[in-house]
C-alpha cells in the first residue's frame, strides 16, 4: 500500500480526471446539440425556401393557366359563334332549298292534276260526242290492211287485227239482211242494211250471233272474230257499200266523225 500522501494524491488525480472527462462529455454533447440545431435550422431554411419556390411556381402556373384558359375560352367562344353562324347560314340555305323544292313539287302536282282533269274532261267530251253519233267503229283493234289494190285485186274493205273470239260490233242501227258462209274468201259473213242505200259487211267470223231479220243497234255484238274463208289469221274484214258499190270504208268512217286510228 502507498503512503497516505500518495493515496491522497491518487484520489485527487482520479477526481480531476473524472471532472475532465465530464467536461469533455458535456462539451461534446453541447457541440452535438449545437450541430443538430444548426442542421435543423439549415433544413428548415431549405424547406422555407423550397416552399417559397413551390408557392411561386404554383402562383405562376395558376396565372399562366388562367391566361391560357381565358385565351382558349375566347377562341372556343369565337369558334362556337362562327360555327353557329355557319350553321345558321347552312340552315337558311337548306330551308330555302326545301321550300323551293316544295314549291316546285306543288306546282308540278297542280299542273299534273290540271292536266289529268283536262284529259278526263276531254275524254268525257269525246265519249259524249261519239255517243251522239249514229255510227261507231266495228272494232277497237289496230288496222292491219286498208282499202285499195292488193296483189292485182281490189281489197274492198278495212281489216282489223283480232284475236280469235273477240266481239265484233254493228257499225250502226239496222236490220240483219244476210247471214251465212260466202264464197270468194269472206267465210262466215253478216250483212246489215242501214237504210238510205247503206250496207255494211263483216267477214271471217268464227261464230255468228244474229239471224236474218234481226234488228240491231249501234254497238251490238253481232259475231265473234275468226279466220274462216281466205284468211291468214283471225281478223275482221269490214266493208261499206253505198247502193251496192264498195267504198273506202276507213274514209267513210272518218266522214261520219269517227277516228279509226
From TrEMBL:
Coiled coil: none annotated. The keyword Transmembrane applies. The keyword Transmembrane helix applies. It comes from the Bacteria. Signal peptide: none annotated. Keywords: Membrane, Transmembrane, Transmembrane helix. It holds the Pfam family Peptidase_M23. SUPFAM superfamilies: Duplicated hybrid motif (SSF51261). The chain crosses the membrane at residues 49-71. PANTHER family: MUREIN HYDROLASE ACTIVATOR ENVC, PEPTIDASE-RELATED. This is M23ase beta-sheet core domain-containing protein.
